[in-house]
Amino acid sequence: MSLLNQLFSRGVFGAKCKTCLSLAISRIKLLQNKRDLQLKNMRKEIAQFLQAGQEPIARIRVEHVIREQNIWAAYEILELFCEFVLARVPILESQKECPPELREAVASIIFAAPRCSDVPDLLQIKNLFSTKYGKEFVIAATELRPDSSVNRAIIEKLSVSAPSGEIRLKVLKEIAQEYNIEWDSSATEAEFSKKYEDLLAGSKQVCVEAAVSQAPSKQASFKSSTSNGAKTILPTDVKQASQNQQSPSHVSKLTFLTSSEIEPSAKNGTAAAPVSEIKTERISRPSDVLERARAAIASAERATAAARAAAELVNVKFGLLKLEGASS
């Protein structure tokens, strides 16, 4: 019985495969003729836009033309693959595994079936190959795994990615040359070669520009404060302060530079000594934060003591009232 089932299934597979392939070939030819007329009309419209000086509309329409041209080219390759498989259906029936010489054609048809909705016969062929060779074979071709053997041209023509600026410019030039239009492509070339800024990195660029613009103003304010005799904090003091904040036991010490040490050099007309060579006075003072914390702790302790005393008085009065009530 198993032998009869195998023979019967082989006959069914071969008959269905031939029927679907023949229908797919005839449908692809009809679609090619239809798309050929559509492409001619679309190219003529783009030529009219270029002649009227409406280049922005032509740049948008040319993407649709390129897409239709790619589909037309993919249909042409698929037609050849279907004819190739149709002539070798008896080989597919006789062998359990897909023959190596037919692997590219079969995998390309499986890959293109869900992407060519105008040819529903390809989906039926895909289902036939799935029942014969298994789901793993179909999944490998659909997901473009390394061992899928799908034709490279089919992948490129059926891709949904937008065409590059070079391809769009090339097609526009071909259309202008086809309809003998004198078209200056400099504006379109500049538009296609324009590199758009990354919007995600825009905030970083704004921050960098703001920091660069604020740097000169900070330097000017630093110079004005030193000339007015105000006390300024040196960069070395900032580092020491950050180190002292990391160790709680160490009292923060800041180094201040007074204007009395800068005035003699300015009066004598000599250049001021480097910051590292200037003698600085280290003034140690207690941390205001620690003082405020200690004061808060002391006030909290006083408040708790007062609350305890009030609670004791209430208890004493309550006890006296109880005694008076018991005696009466």
From TrEMBL:
<dbReference type="InterPro" id="IPR042277">
    <property type="entry name" value="IST1-like"/>
</dbReference>
<dbReference type="InterPro" id="IPR005061">
    <property type="entry name" value="Ist1"/>
</dbReference>
<comment type="similarity">
    <text>Belongs to the IST1 family.</text>
</comment>
<dbReference type="Pfam" id="PF03398">
    <property type="entry name" value="Ist1"/>
</dbReference>
<protein>
    <recommendedName>
        <fullName>Regulator of Vps4 activity in the MVB pathway protein</fullName>
    </recommendedName>
</protein>
<feature type="region of interest" description="Disordered">
    <location>
        <begin position="265"/>
        <end position="285"/>
    </location>
</feature>
